[in-house]
Each structure stands twice: as C-alpha cells, then as structure tokens.
Design goal:
mainly alpha; 125 residues; 0% strand; 4 helices
C-alpha cells in the first residue's frame, strides 16, 4: 500500500494554521503602520511620507505620491488638517453663516417695509 497517495489531514491543518497566522500577522503590521499616521496633521504626515519615500523612489516622485495619498487619508479622517488651515476653514464657515443671516435679515426688513407701505396706502384710501 502506498502512503504517499493518502491525504494527511494534519498536514493540511498545519498549513491552514500557518496561513491564518500569516494573514493575522500581516494585518497587525498593516494596522500598526496605519496607526503611525492617525492624529498627525497634514504637514506632519507629508513630512513623514516624504522622508520614507524620498530615498527609495526619489524626491520628485515621492512628492507626487504624497500629493495623491494625503487627500485620501484626509478624506478617511486618518489625518487632521493643519491648525491654520482649520482656522481658515472655520472662519470661512462663520463668514458664510453670517452672510446668510444678513441676507435673511435684509429680506425680512424688506418684507416688513413692504407691509408697512401697504398699510399706509390702505389708510390713505
């Protein structure tokens, strides 16, 4: 009887355990790498990427890659905007809200004036 033709269930289980262990280890490494960038400001993340990629692929190509990666990380919420950029964004939002409020107030004032003029016209008739 030839033993090589038989399946070895323990060998299969051993390979499966190695595969699952490898995937788990790889996912831990990826998660650890992602955590390096969580909470960094945009300029800090750019600098970190640039310092890691620059020597490997060249400064110019690294800058192109960084310009593509940073907006994606920002959209995912992994990195936060620089404090000055956030302040400018907040100021723009506040100015927009104030302009909307002013526009609404002007419209209400115009409506009130129109109503007052109509009442005066009714009293004159």
């Amino acid at each position: 009887m030839d033993d090589t033709a038989k399946r070895h269930p323990f060998r299969f289980l051993f390979k499966l355990v190695l595969l699952v262990g490898g995937v788990a280890a790889l996912s831990k490494v990826v998660a650890a790498k992602k955590e390096e960038y969580y909470g960094l400001t945009e300029s800090e993340a750019r600098e970190k990427f640039q310092s890691k990629l620059g020597p490997r692929i060249g400064e110019e190509k690294a800058a192109e890659v960084v310009d593509q990666v940073i907006p994606r990380l920002k959209d995912k919420g992994m990195i936060k905007p620089d404090p000055m950029e956030q302040a400018v964004s907040d100021a723009k939002d506040a100015a927009s809200e104030a302009a909307d409020g002013l526009q609404d107030a002007a419209k209400e004032a115009g409506d009130s004036m129109k109503d007052a003029v109509e009442k005066i016209e009714e009293n004159l008739d």
